[in-house]
Amino acid sequence: ERIKDLWGRAPLEVYGNSETTVIATQTWDYDGMVFFPNLNFLEFIPEKEHFKWQLNHSYQPKTVLLDEVKAGENYELVITNFHGGAMVRYRVGDMIRITALRNEKLNIDLPQMVFERRADDLIDLGFMRLTERVIWQALENTKIPYRDWTAHKEVGKTAKLHLYLELSDNYIATEEDVAIAVYEQIKKLEDGLYIYKDLASLERLIGFKPIEVTLLPTGVFTNYKNQRQAEGVELVHLKPPHINPSDKVLSLLGAKMGSGA
User: The whole model's pTM is what?
Assistant: First the structure.
């Protein structure tokens, strides 16, 4: 918003990484992104193939090419750079979604994509498959002010999401109230790929309560960053991952750990 105020125009979203620089960019209608077809040879692992590989890492997932992707489907991205470098058939680790096969408004005859999630950030609770994007959106929709968060799957009598959250702005709430608020917002999200629509029946039949919240002390994420800086870690590792943090990360945050997945 500050860039828009200062420059009079909202910036275009660009998708890329350190290994490949730019992979895709928004067009001037700000609706999805389009691949740069001349920078990388692009291959796409369908999400079903990715799940097969997750269950058996000796499995070689099948790929499709840019002219074979389907609208509404998710794919793990594989790239080979046309301009040299060591990355050959490199699995970027990102899951993207093809939103359309062309941009009708601008008459661009190339598939349109959005970043969906990291390929390894799925928390599968059976009737709810939660990604970083889904959890973040639910948190935002609660309007509860927070500093930061991290979450992982725990397995006891039933699988559940354990959300570790640092509140901000002196906001006061119980862990149970936050858990209920987050769960209610998750159920409202229009995300048929990941959230079973008839959760109410599970709540009645088996007392389905898939969210547990632990409220962390004020300043814990700042302290984590300072400690990691003192250890000399790289910039990208100064913040804990939002999804599936290691036991070491949770320990540094002072979080009590339950049973992992």
Answer: 0.60
